[in-house]
Amino acid sequence: MARQQSPEPRPNRLPSFIEVLDRKTKPPVDLFSFYIYMRDQQRSVDYLDFWLDVSQHTHLCRHFVSELRRSILVETPELEKTASKRSSYILDHLGDNNDPSGPSTDPHTKEKITDQNLSAFLRQDNNGSTHSPHSSLGSRRSASAIRYGERPPRPSFISRNSPSGSDSSSPAGRVVARADIRASAEKILYTYILPGAEREVTLPHGILQDITVAIEEEGRDDPEVFDMAKDYTFQAMERDAFPGFLRAKVFGNIVPPSRFLRLVLGLIAFFAGMWAAFVLIFLDKRKRTRCWLILPFTIAVYSLASHQYHMDPLLALAGLSEYTFCNFSRIEEPYVRKMMMRRASMVLFITVSIGVALICLFIFVPGHRL
């Protein structure tokens, strides 16, 4: 059964990158928001998709070995067990195979050793080990039902209805064949690695060469094949994209198209307000008539301040953050919500101060009819 995790409360700090990838955070700093940010603003979502696909490949390998372990313990004949003692020993020491995180980013040494044992077993199994899910009675029954196109999908973080941290892609009830693992590794190779691939990611030449040789010439499909590439993309996203993501979601709550719209609206309202103010002054209109200047100057100052500070203070005070144009989510991360409220109060105070100053200036200045 898939392991269900609920986000652990953090002290007064922002989440780390690995916490976002492990789905331990809430909007607006969750994995869904980071995916949208990488897609719409960084224009480099292929790196995140590569990292997620490699993580899913690791999870598929773990599920394969978990099935294999059960088949050995329950259905494999005693003669076959005796013939593969080394494989059984590795299987008995694989530990927890349900963690969907990748091999090289897990902070626990025990998990790293587990993934190393997993890759070692898969390499041995690929080189002629007699054990595979097809060797067991249960696997032979289900092998024909498993095809590459039916592989469990990558963990879905697009749906906000699923609990954070839950593994919605668990292939419970399915039998994963060794061919599925091979097909998964080849799909990653042909989609991201080979020159001219559909979604080619930029990696050092040495890493690309090692992956290509390992899969196409050595016939490997274990998770360690992608270990260096996964580390590289993780560090690249953590260094180049994650700081900007935190700035955008912690210190702001609107996306660039909304900022541009507020800039245009603010400039139009400001010039309209200035034109109306000078007309009313030079026509020597009464102060009561000039009070209509409150409307354009309020819109102008509010819109320009929202553009300048990347934040709509009223939306922030209402607990809303924009993830795509005119689509909003609740601000659920406690520390982010607290910081957002403080910044929204500051922006609103600045907006009101500048607006009142402009309105008072043009209402109470003496008129002079030309």
Describe, in plain words, how this protein is organized in 3D.
- It contains 16 helices and 2 strands.
- It has 370 residues and is mainly alpha-helical.
- Strands 1-2 form a two-stranded antiparallel sheet.
- The protein is elongated and about 95 Å long.
Structural class: mainly alpha
Strand residue percentage: under 5%
Work out the helix count: 16
State the end-to-end distance: 83 Å
Number of separate strands: 2
Sheet of most strands: 2 strands, antiparallel
- Strand order in the sheet with the most strands: 1-2
CA radius of gyration is: 29 Å
Shape: elongated
What is the helix content? 55-70%
What's the arrangement of secondary structure elements?
Layout: H1 17-21, H2 31-42, H3 45-74, H4 78-82, H5 85-92, H6 109-126, H7 137-143, H8 178-193, H9 205-217, H10 227-240, H11 242-250, H12 256-282, H13 287-290, H14 294-309, H15 313-317, E1 320-324, E2 327-330, H16 334-364
Antiparallel strand pairs: 1-2
Compact summary:
This protein has 370 residues and is mainly alpha-helical. It has helices at residues 17-21, 31-42, 45-74, 78-82, 85-92, 109-126, 137-143, 178-193, 205-217, 227-240, 242-250, 256-282, 287-290, 294-309, 313-317, 334-364; strands at residues 320-324, 327-330.
Question: What are the salient characteristics of this protein?
Answer:
370 residues, mainly alpha, two-stranded antiparallel ribbon, 2 strands, 2% strand, disordered N terminus
